[in-house]
Specification:
- The complex is a heterodimer of chains A (430) and B (647).
- Chain A is α/β, with parallel strands linked by helices.
- In chain A, the strands form two sheets. Chain A has a nine-stranded mixed sheet with strand order 13-12-11-7-10-9-8-14-15.
- The radius of gyration of chain B is 37 Å and the shape is flat.
- Classes of the chains: A alpha/beta (430), B mainly alpha (647).
């Protein structure tokens, strides 16, 4: 394995003015300076933001947004009062006023015509429904992953943003990190020869199901709005064990109960990267076959996708590996890259570990201004999620399934097709 | 606590168990669908809920009556619809239609939504009635469902509703019209789709619906939608400009491209940049001459946008234009051009860049050398090596940097020899940077090639050698740096200790650094060396991903007695607070009694994430130590509160 130099983020950002770092910023069709993003953005050119879901991951994303000069946060929304207060304070401090408004019902925030874009970092139960509601309200959306609970939601998400003309970026921030982009570039530009296999690590193919627990006394609505928290998920009484939004209804249906935390939770990152590396942003794998510890799938191009947890180089979490006829490359969250030949790594200058989201958020904000498609557009997210959902269906049925990306149905397979979607609790719809 | 889900004897437990048993879960319970129907009829609600999910997979028309009976129950409505939406056949359609009469409140909306998902054409009549409901949310659901069902009958109802009622109900009807139009478009009925989109964009409905109608009207018309598209691109309303910019990317056709190019000449500078971005995203090569012209001359912001757009549309023919821009006196233009040159796709591009590199001179040669590294053009390497001795300092710097980025161990030797030859301090600094990059990538195999630096007569080159050896790593490099601690030059000695104290911590062999650091800490030539050695030791142990908690504890215990000075103890505490493991936590507690670092140790304890995971007795002991011995009121109060919380 070849070694890479360590370069911390501060040094990287300093270096980012040079040619060597440009691959990170690209593709940025209209340069920042043209868009008024060089630190002196007039108020009229600021992107006004509403933040929906500001606990755990949401608070991190929110800080990244607030760090951007051309963002002004006007409103925050969460089902928990304590989070609302903390987020409002952060926004007010950043804005230099006391005008950030708090909401518990996202529909009220979305109803504000003065908000351009929303960040959605609720639990995954809400992601798709909230994003589609936002698209109907004319908002651009940065939405945490996993973005959808099933195949039909994935398609509806892409349709919604095509219909509204809105900009959507899935929170798959590894698409904007230099080492992943570098490895993908090698695969896409033929530097590995003809690509034949891509590998992703789903980190376990099992997950707990969000069930119906014994009822517990419900907190006061003003402190924690349980009904709003449940949102589109089927009804169940309050129970604290279910109140961790990160795990609740991750994937939703039977399939989600099995794989929502496995194939989908990590696949929405690592399978997503394989989609990009294989130029499959507008399609999904067709044949899926569980083989014991692994799942093998095949893209329409003939490239094989292998989901496996074992046999990875020690490069950190979320690894991917791309293999072509003349070489291979593997990378993961530590920021290092291993390749079949040091020559493949020539010209690589930066290492960024720790999967920060700020580059990805910057890409989203640039696209809000240009109306270009961000790196993880609704279309790209739709198909990478479909590959994960279809893989989960194969795992659940414990047999081979065949999916047709053109019809978006499984071929002659009623059981699999029944798992394409799941009813939402009233009044929510997508 | 009773966990209904986990406790279920039937399929769910197997569902939770993992993919290996998933097939069993599908077959469970043993009684199959009949047993699940019985659960639906008589079991407690939590079990009914899961039975609904199982019936979604294996249920048939036989399960429909029992499922439909759950519709009026607000707590079960969403669960039973999971199955009713999934079970194929007219029975489930009929159950949902009939169910509308049996439900109230929000459940009406749920049932309507499910009808919409199933696209039940027989429901148009009942949904039409719901379009007149007093609850605007019911109207919204009915309109959406009608839109999803689609067809002429639904379209007629929806268009009719655009004209009357409140703005909310009109807007709801508009939403339905949009869905309906999409259905027409997919079915190839373009005229009906256009009719609906036009109806929406001309209706008095929410602005977002008008935008969606406008976008649909443009896209469904294709090239015939160009006038409407241009209207949006000229709109003073930013929302409609945005719709225009998105629609302009969707509609295919040379005519659209021509219209956008023509518009480019007429619009404002700000919008020119946005239109150029659209042309780039469309990827139509016909726009290339326009973009090249815009890249060459005009307002700087438009030039920059055009240069950036050439990445998407350009080919080898644009290289001269971009090379010219890459040395422009406007730094922003130059940077944009370099960025595009680095990413311009195509094998012919690399061949052309190589040809230009062979013949270029001056600043352009420097740009091309940088690009060779950025684009990994292996054929450029002989020219780059030659350029490292170019008379132009800028070209030399680029070449040296590129050798660092692309070279192998032999080029490490080449760079080391260059460093020995030159007296130019800037060149030396560039060479060191390049060597660090190269050796860090290629590894210990470089040691023999860079060792001459560490043995040079010039102390500053010996220091450079130490840094580069650290980048190489491996036992030979480590031995050379350890030997340098005995160097005749004091500055080199100090640098050797600093180098050892920051030795990389990535490879199994790197752990050998602990031995020389221990030796330095035990018998330092200077006190500063001991401080550095201990800090390096503690940080290495703390950061190691390969040592077990037990090994870390043993290694910390082995040298902690040497940490006698304040800085040394602080280094130890800083490392201990980041480590996991209960043993290391006890070491942290032992520092509380030391008045010189009691506050640091106490703060580390009360703020440790590990604290919550400790056994109760150990947690109490740690907090009590803080309460009893810490002199800082704030920290002591924190510990007291935490202690009370445990009790």
């Amino acid at each position: 394995m070849s070694r890479k130099t360590n370069l911390n983020r501060r040094k990287f950002l300093k270096k980012a003015v040079g040619v060597g770092a440009m691959a990170v910023a690209a593709p940025m069709i209209v340069p920042s300076r043209v868009l008024g993003l060089d630190g002196q953005t007039p108020p009229s050119e600021k992107i006004t933001l509403g933040a929906i879901g500001i606990g755990n991951r949401g608070s991190y994303d929110f800080r990244c947004f607030l760090a951007e000069n051309d963002v002004q946060c006007l409103a925050v929304c969460d089902v928990r009062q304590t989070r609302l207060e903390a987020a409002k304070n952060a926004a007010d401090t950043r804005n230099g006023n006391k005008e950030c408004t708090t909401y518990k019902d996202l529909r009220e925030l979305l109803g504000r015509p003065d908000i351009d874009a929303v960040m959605i970092a609720t639990g995954p139960n809400w992601h798709c429904t909230a994003a589609i509601l936002a698209s109907r309200a004319g908002k651009d959306v940065y939405c945490e992953k996993p973005c959808t609970k099933n195949i039909v939601q994935s398609l509806a998400l892409a349709d919604a943003f095509r219909r509204s003309g809105g900009v959507f970026q899935a929170g798959t921030q590894r698409r904007s990190l230099p080492h992943f982009m570098y490895a993908i570039d090698l695969a896409r530009k033929g530097k590995l020869g003809k690509l034949h296999t891509v590998h992703a690590r789903p980190m376990g193919l099992t997950a707990k199901m969000s069930g119906w627990e014994a009822p517990e006394p419900e907190p006061k609505k003003e402190e924690f709005d349980w009904d709003q928290y449940l949102g589109p998920a089927a009804y169940r009484p309050y129970n604290k064990a279910l109140s961790n939004g990160f795990h609740f209804e991750k994937g939703g249906a039977f399939v989600g109960a099995l794989g929502g935390g496995g194939c989908l939770e990590w696949g929405s990152h690592c399978v997503d990267l394989c989609q990009w590396a294989t130029d499959s942003d507008g399609t999904a794998c067709t044949v899926y076959e569980p083989t014991g510890k692994e799942l093998h799938a095949v893209y329409p191009s003939g490239v094989k996708l292998v989901l496996r947890d074992d046999g990875w180089l020690p490069l950190g979490s979320c690894p991917v590996r791309f293999e072509g006829e003349t070489g291979w490359v593997e990378t993961a969250d530590d920021g290092d890259i291993a390749a079949s030949s040091p020559a493949l790594l020539a010209g690589r200058h930066q290492k960024i570990g720790g999967y920060p989201a700020n580059f990805h958020i910057r890409n989203f904000l640039d696209c809000v201004k240009t109306r270009s498609q961000p790196r993880a557009s609704a279309e790209a997210a739709c198909w990478s999620h479909i590959t994960c959902h279809a893989a989960n269906i194969a795992l659940f049925l414990n047999r081979k399934v065949t999916f047709d990306p053109k019809t978006t149905m499984f071929a002659n397979d009623e059981q699999a097709n029944r798992l394409r979607s799941e009813a939402l609790r009233e009044p929510w719809r997508i | 606590m009773l966990r209904y889900m986990v406790g279920m004897a039937a399929g769910l437990a197997m569902v939770c168990a993992g993919p290996a048993r998933a097939d069993d879960a599908l077959k469970a319970p043993p009684g199959g669908e009949a047993a699940l129907i019985e659960v639906i009829k008589s079991a407690p609600k939590p079990e009914k809920a899961i039975a609904c999910k199982q019936l979604a997979v294996i249920g048939s028309k036989a399960a429909v009556p029992a499922l439909a009976a759950l519709l009026p129950d607000p707590e079960m409505n969403s669960w039973c619809r999971i199955a009713l939406e999934a079970i194929p056949g007219p029975e489930a359609d009929a159950a949902l239609r009939d169910g509308l009469g049996a439900v109230k409140g929000k459940q009406v909306i749920g049932v309507i939504n499910s009808i919409g998902v199933r696209k039940d054409a027989k429901a148009v009549e009942v949904l039409t009635a719901k379009m007149k409901d007093s609850d605007v949310e019911v109207v919204g659901a009915a309109a959406a469902a009608l839109g999803h069902i689609g067809g002429d009958s639904a379209a007629t109802v929806l268009v009719g509703a655009l004209a009357g009622g409140s703005v909310e109900t009109r807007s709801a009807a508009a939403q339905g019209c949009i869905y309906c139009a999409e259905g027409f478009q997919t079915a190839g009925n373009r005229d009906s789709a256009i009719k609906l989109y036009d109806a929406v964009r001309k209706a008095e409905v929410a602005k977002q619906r008008v935008q969606e109608g406008t976008r649909g009207a443009i896209v469904s018309r294709g090239v015939e939608g160009i006038p409407l598209l241009i209207e949006q691109l000229r709109s003073p309303d930013r929302a409609f400009l945005r719709i225009g910019l998105r629609a302009a990317r969707e509609v295919p056709g040379k005519e659209v491209n021509d219209a956008l190019v023509a518009e480019l000449a007429k619009t404002t500078i700000d919008r020119q940049a946005l239109l150029i971005a659209v042309l780039a995203d469309r990827g139509d090569a016909a726009a290339l001459p326009t973009l090249v012209a815009a890249a060459k001359a005009g307002p700087a912001d438009v030039r920059i946008a055009a240069i950036a757009a050439l990445e998407a549309l350009g080919n080898a023919s644009v290289i001269p234009t971009l090379l010219g821009a890459a040395v422009d006196k406007d730094a922003n233009i130059a940077q944009a051009a370099r960025s595009t040159l680095a990413r311009l796709p195509g094998k012919d591009v690399e061949a052309e860049l190589l040809a230009q590199l062979s013949s270029s001179t001056g600043p352009q040669r420097g740009v091309l050398v940088d690009l060779a590294a950025e684009r990994r053009i292996e054929g450029a390497f002989p020219i780059i090596l030659k350029s490292a001795e170019d008379a132009d300092p800028g070209v030399r710097a680029s070449a040296i940097d590129t050798i660092g980025a692309m070279g192998d161990e032999k080029q490490a030797g080449y760079l080391a020899a260059m460093a020995q030859k030159t007296q130019d301090q800037k060149d030396r600094a560039n060479i060191e940077k390049a060597l660090n990059l190269l050796t860090g990538r290629v590894g210990p195999v470089c040691v023999q090639y860079v060792m001459p630096l560490a043995k040079d007569n010039d102390p500053s080159l010996r220091e450079m050698g130490l840094h580069v050896l650290k980048g190489c790593g491996g036992p030979e490099a480590l031995a050379a740096v350890v030997a340098a601690v005995q160097d005749k030059d004091d500055a080199v000695k100090d640098e050797a200790v600093r180098t050892l104290s920051t030795w990389p911590n990535r490879w199994p062999e790197d752990a050998a650094i602990l031995e020389p650091l221990t030796a330095l800490a035990k018998a330092p030539k200077k006190e500063a060396h001991k401080v550095l050695a201990l800090r390096g030791y503690f940080q290495f142990v703390q950061g190691s991903k390969k040592l077990s908690e037990k090994d870390k504890l043993a290694k910390m215990n082995a040298v902690l007695p040497l940490a006698t000075r304040l800085e040394e103890k602080r280094s130890a505490i800083a490392a201990l607070r980041e480590m996991g493991g209960t043993g290391t936590f006890d070491l942290l507690v032992s520092f509380v009694a030391d008045a010189t670092v009691s506050d640091e140790a106490s703060s580390a304890i009360v703020n440790s994430k590990l604290l919550a995971k400790l056994p109760k007795a150990q947690k109490q002991k740690a907090l009590k130590a803080v309460v009893d011995q810490c002199k800082n009121d704030g920290i002591r109060k924190q510990a007291e509160d935490a202690l009370k919380a445990i009790r």
